[in-house]
Amino acid sequence: MGEEVAFRAAASAGNLHPVEVYIAVGKVAGIPAGLYHFAPDAFGLEELRAGDCREAIAQILAEPDLPASPVVLMLTGIPWRTAWKYADRGWRHVYWDAGTMLANLLAVAEGDQLPARVWLGFVDSALCRLLGIDGRAEFPVAVITVGAGEVAASTSSGPLAGAMPEPAPLSRRQVEFPSITRVQEAGNLPSADRVKAWRTAAVTGPSHASPTVGAAAASSADPIETVILRRGSTRRMRRVTVPVDLLRWGLAVAGRPVPTDVMAEGSSLLRYEVAVHAVRDVPPGLYHWVEGAAQPYRLMPEGQVRELSRGLCLDQSLGGDSAYTVYACADLESILNRWGDRGYRIAQLEAGIAAGRLQLSAFALDYGGTGLTFFDDDVSAAFGTSAACMLAISIGVPAYRAKPGGPPGRPTRLTL
Q: Which CATH number is correct for 220-398, 3.40.50.300, 3.40.109.10, 3.40.50.10610, 3.90.850.10?
């Protein structure tokens, strides 16, 4: 009793937040060039290294002609934060949570008309050295360039001055999950040449076209920052029928292409299977979502499809109480054959981005949503697909109205 619990603006399973953010700054008003760690509790930057290190990052990305960006963000994952609760599956939660953060970042960047790009090809060990992390207890997840219009730094191609200290233990007694270490290291790229070859194969790899999308007829006129603060994982839903726009626009937003170095422009690795419970003009049942439209796979009474959805989502009531539940799936066999073990990271991350976008679209329309875990093989069997489920997202009518979060530095305080 009396313990204070902090929540953040991006969705995270169990409110565990295993993702850290580092920032490399070039020429930004009021911030000296350097490498920083973002401290969410203080909402401030902790300087790790003085001086511009963007050229070193360009080498790590194997992109000497990297478009000039005044800010480079680097996301890392600390698997122990989530694995203590979710065990080996916690590795997937790292990428899901990073995806929901990226959904917010990309939405804000687009709202402010700032170019942003997600880089998933990099030399893992070199990025670890730059950030002062060990690649096991904390490992790199993604690099994001934001902004443009500046001439890239080119003062030195050698190592940065001032070596980073050795990573300090995160706790007195650390517990490592060997399978998490193996799956992460299996996808590592050891050199710039390997990054270039992998990226070339990735861009021409298997993908699906993503439809373009405009605003929904009933969407909120609020700025994206307001929608983000209003969003909160919905923990209870009412069984109420929703307009079809919530389904069509939500999935169109979720499936928008991610600006990244690993997929052809305008494409996606994901396909969407949908359990419709109570959507106006769409009979209850299971659907394949194809080119922006619901194609019936198996229709059934509302109660039956709700019970099935609940069962697929580990018997969590939200899976069946929602208006519809989306299962973001990927053809892992073709992805792994083309891109190797690193391809699994990308599919998980894109699913996290889709989940974050789907929830933001729901809150923009004054509804609610949440991500859920699931029985992998049962989802594939239910929809008659060989694709593997990456993440489940339930969208519907909240049973309560969440209190919006506060702006940076002024959090909303809740009394239970």
A: 3.40.109.10
Kindly tell me the number of DSSP H helices and DSSP E strands found in the chain. 13, 15
Strand 270-276 relative to strand 324-330, pairing: antiparallel
Give the whole-angstrom CA distance, residue 299 versus residue 11. 32
Tens of pLDDT, residue by residue over 268-288, are: 999 999 999 999 999 999 999
Domain with CATH 3.40.109.10 in the chain: 13-150+168-194, 220-398
DSSP alpha helices (H): ranges in 112-206? 124-131, 178-186, 192-203
Q: pLDDT of 73-129, one tens digit each? A: 999 999 999 999 999 999 999 999 999 999 999 999 998 999 999 999 999 999 999
Pull the structure tokens for residue 86: 């979710």
Query: How far apart (Å, rounded) are the C-alpha atoms in residues 373 and 353?
Result: 16
